[in-house]
Amino acid sequence: MKGFKKIILWTLIPITLELLGIFYIDQFYLNDETSFNTKKIDVATKKGPNKINVKVGDEAKNIKASYNGKYISYYEDESIKVIDTSNNKKKEITFEDGGKLSSYKWLPDRDIMLVAEKYSNGNLGNYLKFKSYNAKKDEKLPLSDENNKELKIPLLDGKYEVLDIALSTATNVTYVKVGREGVRSKLYRINVMAQLEETKYYNGKLGEITALNKEDRLVYQDVTYNRIRVVGLKNPIATGENAIHYLLASDSEDNVYIGNGEDEKVKKIFVASLKKPRDQWKILTLEERVNKDNIYITNKGKIYINEPSKSLVKDLESGQEVQYEGEVVEIHDFGIIVKDGGKISGKLF
């Protein structure tokens, strides 16, 4: 009997050790929430300012960049061209028969874009479909539900287009603004399961939209009543000051950037938070009024001012400046994208 107990004991010891090993790997090696004392080395910031050097044709439109500038994209010859800036290799996003580009947008923190395609198809009428394009994998997948049914947004007529797209990668929720001149825009919400619902908003003209990153909230500019509102909340985001309020952007920490000024020009920028009282907001006063389209705010919350007359971009808080030649088409987390004639180039901050 003692011998039998010894056999069982010696059998259990290696099994126990193996289970402890598996537990350790699961809890400390594969756990996404494990904290390590490491230093992030960003390869992109180590490369020289001439990293981006792409030639484009005269018909290139909708020039955009991924969040880190690794990919440049533009629309030409009825397809989206995607350039890997590390080797200048070109990839192409084409559309199904009858499909045309309505809009596209890069995700704020990934090398993935959402593409909105418009179709006019006889008895099916006019509608939108959406594709997700992974630039690294060169893979395009339709937005479809668990039953592989493709998501479609019906349009009242062929003049409707996607006017804006707001994305949240943390909640996997997308908001789409659809409309045309002279009519009230429609607002749609697409959840993580690719299910669609129309979103109601205050009875006014819908302006700029942005989605908070950490919670499912859409912030929008109510042009009619000069308010910055949040879907689902009764009260607007109030700055406590008069003048026109322009919704500029939101960042990864759910800060909302509101420009205060008039005639499309901004004098103050309010960095608002839904979770903080107004006296804890950051308020930045500009030296002179700046056209709102020349204010760029990255996903990391960096604010840059483009001064076209001086051909320079300035970091609003540090004062650091970057000179350029041509026309600024995009500012990403690490630098600026400039188009000069038939060339797209970049400079890093």
TrEMBL record:
Tree of life domain: Bacteria
Transmembrane parts of this sequence: 7-25
InterPro entries listed in its UniProt record: N2O_reductase_N
Alphabetized UniProt keyword annotations: Membrane, Transmembrane, Transmembrane helix
Keyword Transmembrane: yes
The name this protein goes by in its record: Dipeptidyl-peptidase IV
Native species: Clostridium tanneri
